[in-house]
Design brief:
Radius of gyration of chain A: 21 Å
Distance between the termini of chain B: 71 Å
Order of helices and strands of chain A: HEEEEEHEHEHEEHHEHEHHHHEHHEEH
Shape of chain A: globular
Structural class of chain A: alpha/beta
Number of helices of chain B: 17
Number of strands of chain A: 14
Number of helices of chain A: 14
Oligomer: heterodimer
Helix content of chain B: 40-55%
Strand order of the largest sheet of chain A: 1-2-6-3-7-9-8-13-14-12-10-11
CATH superfamily of one domain in chain A: Amidase signature (AS) domain
Helix content of chain A: 25-40%
Strand content of chain B: 15-25%
Chain lengths: 467, 500
């Protein structure tokens, strides 16, 4: 393995220190330079030296390079202080599937509550004031969910805007680097630093496409003149939503009306099929991406194992946690020749969902059709939905429920996965309940693919309006 | 018994297929592309380097790294596809083929399964150029681009399995033929011609021995299940394995057993089962969504065709015709070694400008030049003896400035001591033709010949008794004495005059 010792020395030393109060930082980086604002990075994003992905199988791994997103921030003088806890390989929605144990929600004093996952450590470091912002990744809700639980902003940009070079893949067609912060303005500031084409990432949006998007967005902005159409899809108003959740959604809608925007009820029928498509695609890609951890270059390399097949089996059985093994098995079933063509079918569903999004949204999706029909003024600019079904439970209660029904932890994903499947920019906003000082449940706002800046702007206006 | 007898003969030429058992065979050929960089990374493709010294993060599957297609690999694959008249697909893409093996760092190979680069080509074998009894067309099913694996080295000395990933992610093309081969000669001709073609297109070194080309063979008898024989290292091995497998399948059928669809290996003597259909690996193919779809213009085949050199068959056809008028075997020899062909053509164009007849040029090049290199055991190299120098030497003979004998001596010296000049060699060795008028010359020749005749009465006697060829002995003595500076014709006339 190539190690850049000198560079690491100049940049900072990784120390596996005692955990913080919330077990949110799993390796601390004591910097010897950079007086800029502190930030943390989810431990599935490579930084030179230790990067574990929350997995035992990468406990010995030392990254030889920094991810593009980390480098961009450090070049601007931001100060990396730690790598944050996560569900192993990003697989989970509670941060309870980590080799380092669960991270704990800083907002609750009366017990250990879940942070949400998989970027639980990132949300906790921001909510707990250990840093100004954190980089996480969102594959099916992994930034929005913990941001919602921990009362902070969680932004998943359009797929392809932020570089994935150096981001350990869970499901590469869904994985998106995003930003968690305490203010919308901080999210905007960091987004401006990171929103760059990266030639190392084959899925990075080209400079031309970025330009085309901004041309269309400018045209729309001048046509709309600050008054947007906001849709609320009925398919997101699932039975399980608590009254408190419905009230919060109403509050957001009223505020938007109050600001002069239109709010309309809409329907996106394919949302109901998203969850199965999501788990089919995510687990299939995960099974493939995690094939490289064969115990030869990664893993402890148990010397008692004899023969290549046993080395692979032994190391993977010992190195991966239960949930990861479950998803690998599920994914391998999906792509096995016996199971038929589930992956292809799920991809078709995904395309269908994107079509429905495109039919509802005013500006076109420049990845699929590039004609802007500006006369369709009735179409939506942004869409509103709750981030979670409920406020967070204690870790104990979460584990108990999960033990009773494995699929329990998957149900919330109905609210977050459609935006992952379509790659659209989505933010979870920590809207306060009446008379409360903290939010433990967020509201999502999302827009057309590429419409990130306008989304952040309307989010900022909305939150200022609610102050 | 039959098997044993057949195996004892290594000469495939003696083998006859049994008309009752129809032989059917197809090939899968992996060809390593001669690109500067690897298929999906910027590591140089270099062989025989220190193990694991030509690797980049992606080649060794560091998580968080992504593939980036090397356009040179695409271009080389398109050249072959065009040369074989394949239909280049407007959209092709990459898939992942999953299996665990220590030389496969990603746990999958990036290849093209659902949507290959090119389909439906043709490979024409001819009676005239490929030593076949009749013309034969082998259909090409598809051509796809994929990654090579690393190498596993079993170190017997310290009992370790070592992995070298220098070869991992080197670009390969896999070419799959239809099961069109009916006999060994066709297989042999196909492989020879394919090697020549890829060398000629400059997309691969064309060597089987180094593994730059690797061949898997599918054999079936009377339309039964096909058996795949993997990793055959030479044309000889391929022939031996095919004969063995054909014979084995016949013997199975004769014992009323059904041929199983399976994969077999070749151990040098026999094919051995490595995997049956039941325990075949499920490769779990699915699209590699990180790599963009390759969208190609419908014109690309025509555009590439314009950049391709003339094909070997056409080159041979040209060489046997005017102005070259080479013999077919010499034409084939030259076409097989492109550097040599260029050397010949350069020389040819210089000398024809000086009105040297084609026949003489061919004779010089094939016999004198190649012969001289061969005699000195030096491989033919235009760097050692540039075509312009060679032409200068040949023109000296043509203009009667030196004799053929002297020219041969000079030629050897030019090859043995690269960079020396013709005039210098002639001068230093006193090889110049004597500058004397013809009367003096005649007198000198007469004296020398008379002297030789006087000293060899027994030889003279033989000649007088009818053994006319013995005059050559006297000629040799005369040539030796004059270091070949005087033409042998003159001596011959003189000897014939003296010995009457």
């Amino acid at each position: 393995m190539i190690r850049n010792g000198v560079k690491q020395f100049l940049r900072g030393v990784v120390t596996n220190s005692k955990p913080d109060r919330w077990n949110s930082i799993i390796s601390e980086i004591s910097s010897c330079g950079g007086n800029g604002e502190k930030f943390t990075v989810k431990d599935n994003i490579l930084t030179i030296g230790t990067t574990t992905c929350g997995s035992k199988i990468l406990s010995e791994f030392e990254s030889p390079f920094d991810a593009t997103v980390v480098k961009l921030l450090q070049d601007k003088g931001y100060n990396l202080v730690g790598k944050t806890n996560l569900d192993e390989f990003g697989m989970g929605s509670s941060n309870t599937n980590s080799n380092f144990g669960p991270s704990v929600n800083p907002l609750f004093e009366d017990g250990e509550y879940v942070t949400g996952g998989s970027s639980g450590g990132s949300a906790a470091t921001v909510a707990g004031g250990l840093c100004e912002f954190s980089l996480g990744t969102d594959t099916g809700g992994s930034i929005r969910l913990p941001a919602s639980n921990c009362g902070v902003y969680g932004f998943k940009p359009s797929y392809g805007r932020l570089s994935r070079w150096g981001v350990i893949p869970y499901a590469q067609t869904l994985d998106t680097v995003g930003i968690i912060a305490r203010t919308c303005e901080k999210v905007q500031e960091v987004f401006e630093v990171l929103d760059k084409y990266d030639s190392k990432d084959p899925t990075s949006l080209s400079v031309e496409t970025r330009k085309e998007i901004s041309t269309v967005v400018s045209k729309r902005n001048s046509l709309r003149n600050g008054m947007f159409n906001i849709g609320i899809p009925e398919e997101f108003l699932v039975e399980e939503l608590s009254d408190a959740t419905r009230n919060k959604l109403s509050k957001a809608a009223e505020a938007l009306l109050d600001m002069g925007h239109n709010v309309v009820a809409i329907s996106i029928p394919s949302i109901e099929k998203s969850l199965s498509a999501y788990y089919t695609i995510a687990t299939a890609e995960a099974a493939s991406n995690l094939s490289r951890y064969d115990g030869i270059r990664f893993g402890k390399g148990d010397e008692n194992l004899d023969g290549a097949a046993n080395v692979v089996k032994g190391n993977r059985s010992l190195g991966f946690g239960k949930e990861v093994q479950r998803r690998i098995i599920l994914g391998n079933y999906t792509i096995s020749s016996d199971s038929g063509d589930h992956y292809i079918k799920a991809t078709e569903l995904r395309r269908h969902l994107a079509d429905e999004f495109n039919n509802i949204l005013y500006i076109p999706n420049l990845l699929t059709n590039s004609e802007f029909e500006s006369k369709d003024v009735g179409k939506c600019d942004f869409i509103l939905a709750s981030t979670t079904i409920n406020t967070p439970t204690t870790i104990e209660e979460f584990l108990h429920k999960e033990h009773q029904n494995l699929l329990e932890s998957y149900t919330n994903d109905i609210l977050t996965t459609p935006m992952s499947l379509t790659g659209v920019p989505t933010i979870s906003l920590p809207i306060l309940d009446e008379g409360k000082a903290i939010s433990t449940q967020g509201i999502q706002l999302f827009g057309q693919f590429g419409d990130d800046r306008a989304l952040l702007q309307i989010s900022s206006h909305l939150m200022n309006h609610l102050l | 018994m039959l098997t044993k007898r057949l195996l004892s003969t290594t000469s495939a030429g003696l083998f006859q297929f049994d008309p009752l058992y129809r032989f059917k065979c197809g090939l899968e050929i992996h060809t390593q592309l001669k690109t500067r960089y690897k298929l999906f990374s910027l590591s140089p493709t270099s062989f025989n380097s220190e193990p694991n010294s030509k690797i980049s993060y992606f080649d060794i599957a560091i998580p968080g790294t992504q593939p980036k297609l090397n356009p040179e690999a695409l271009l080389l694959a398109l050249k072959l596809s065009t040369a074989l008249g394949c239909q280049i697909q407007p959209k092709s893409r990459f898939d992942r083929k999953h299996y665990f093996y220590p030389d496969q760092p990603l746990g999958y190979q990036i290849t093209q399964f659902y949507h290959p680069l090119a389909k439906h080509g043709e490979f024409k074998l001819t009676q005239r150029y490929d030593n076949l009894e009749k013309d034969k067309t082998i259909n090409i099913q598809q051509i796809q681009i994929e990654q090579d694996t690393g190498k596993i080295i079993y170190d017997k000395h310290d009992g370790l399995i070592k992995i070298d990933l220098n070869r991992a992610n080197v670009p390969l093309i896999e070419l799959i033929t239809d099961p069109d081969f009916e006999n060994l000669a066709q297989i042999k001709s196909f492989l020879k011609k394919y090697q020549l073609l890829v060398k000629h297109l400059d997309i691969c070194t064309g060597d089987l021995e180094t593994g730059a080309i690797r061949v898997d063979v599918n054999v079936s008898v009377n339309g039964g299940n096909r058996v795949e024989i993997k990793n055959l290292g030479s044309t000889g091995e391929i022939q031996d394995a095919v004969i063995y497998e054909y014979t084995r399948q016949i013997s199975e059928l004769q014992q009323s057993r059904v041929i199983q669809q399976e994969t077999r290996g070749w151990n040098g003597k026999e094919t051995v089962r490595s995997r049956s259909k039941e325990d075949a690996v499920d490769y779990r193919y699915f699209p590699d969504s990180e790599l963009p779809i390759i969208n190609l213009d419908s014109q690309i085949g025509q555009d590439i065709a314009k950049t391709l050199p003339e094909f070997p068959d056409q080159l041979m056809a040209n060489l046997v015709e005017s102005p070259y008028k080479l013999e077919l075997k010499h034409a084939r020899f030259l076409v097989e070694i492109p550097e040599l062909l260029k050397y010949y053509q350069d020389l040819f164009s210089i000398l024809t400008a000086h009105k040297v007849p084609a026949k003489q040029i061919n004779n010089w090049f094939i016999h004198e030049v190649l012969g001289a290199f061969n005699k000195l055991d030096i491989s033919v190299d235009p760097q050692i003896l540039p075509s312009s120098t060679l032409a200068e030497l040949i023109l000296k003979v043509k203009n009667d400035a030196i004799t053929l004998t002297v020219a041969r001596t000079v030629l050897s010296t030019l090859i043995a001591i690269p960079g020396s000049s013709i005039d210098q060699i002639i001068k230093e060795n006193g090889l110049a033709k004597p500058q004397v008028d013809s009367t003096d010359m005649d007198q000198a020749v007469t004296e020398l010949c008379q002297d030789i005749v006087d000293r060899n009465p027994d030889v003279v006697e033989k000649i007088r008794n009818g053994k006319k060829n013995s005059v050559n002995y006297l000629l040799g003595l005369a040539m030796k004495e004059t270091k070949g500076k005087v033409g042998s014709k003159l001596f011959l006339q003189k000897f014939q005059a003296l010995i009457k």
